[in-house]
Amino acid sequence: MNNKTILITGCSTGFGKLTARLFQSKGWNVIATMRSPEKETELNKLPNVLVTRLDVTEPQSITDAIIAGMEQFGAIEALVNNAGISGMGVFEQWDDQEINAIFNTNVYGPMRVTQQVLPIMRNQKEGVIINISSLAGILGSPYSSVYSAAKFAVEGLTEALALEYAPFNIKTKVIAPGAYETNLFTTIPHRILANGDQQIRDYSDKMLQKMNATMEQMRQQGAQESDPQEVADKIYQCVTEETSVHNVSGSDAEAILQMKKSMPEDQLMKAISDMFVPELHTA
Ligand SMILES: NC(=O)c1ccc[n+]([C@@H]2O[C@H](COP(=O)([O-])OP(=O)(O)OC[C@H]3O[C@@H](n4cnc5c(N)ncnc54)[C@H](OP(=O)(O)O)[C@@H]3O)[C@@H](O)[C@H]2O)c1
């Protein structure tokens, strides 16, 4: 029986919930954190799971969750910075509020949690930190520029910490998942799509149509819906086995990574553009 402890952010749904379940089933103690633990009905019924409140934008809630976890389990051997939000729109449509929200949750959030967990791991002389990036963190993604910028930041932060904290026996790794059906896309605020001048709003509409058409075409050509459990399994592998610092999950992410490694940049840009960027007929 493993009696190690993992703290995971964003366990209310999606990858976070699946990861909490998986580690619990493998005998880990799980500090399953979420913004609204009062709504949780499943994880809090499992043995060795502490469901507790943590909002990555609120430093005190991070401190409180860590104290509660340490009181119950006495150690934190692994941390998964999973909580995240997404967004879409042509860059000029993004306002400060939306840009700040993306960076606050997806970049400053993992930074805050990591800074509070690192002293515990240093004291234990061991630890593994997994950050969840995205395919948009390895390839600049049209219509998701700000999300992409945030996830590139997560990739860079991870690489730097992997080097900086190796002497403390703390491993830091990142996983870039491809596209998976979770709540991530259904919770995107569409408010900003009304921003911008007429040309930008028209361009934005066309880009959304083009992206939807490409997705539909891929489905018709037999592209399978990826199973989000793959991401939980990849997290488990990265925590428990020797892996590289940068990891991907999903056949789409693997294919794009391969294209990025093997194609000249202009060919890669053209291939991505053909899939997602509409033509602009200006007078
Ligand atoms: N699904 C994909 O295709 C995909 C692809 C690449 C990367 N990712 C990344 O994977 C991670 C998990 O996403 P998912 O797909 O599992 O989506 P999801 O089902 O929407 O889960 C996101 C989780 O993050 C939580 N969260 C949001 N803001 C938070 C905050 N301020 N503090 C704490 N928790 C917060 C949400 O909690 P609430 O219930 O309280 O909102 C939810 O539990 C994210 O980092 C996302 O960027 C997803």
Automatic annotation (TrEMBL):
Keyword Endoplasmic reticulum annotated: no
InterPro entries with a match to the protein in the record: NAD(P)-bd_dom_sf, Sc_DH/Rdtase_CS, SDR_fam, SDR_oxidoreductase
PROSITE patterns, sorted: ADH_SHORT
Gene3D superfamilies: NAD(P)-binding Rossmann-like Domain
Keyword set, alphabetical order: Oxidoreductase, Plasmid
Record CDD domains: 17beta-HSD-like_SDR_c
Domain of life: Bacteria
Family under the similarity heading: Belongs to the short-chain dehydrogenases/reductases (SDR) family.
Protein name: SDR family oxidoreductase
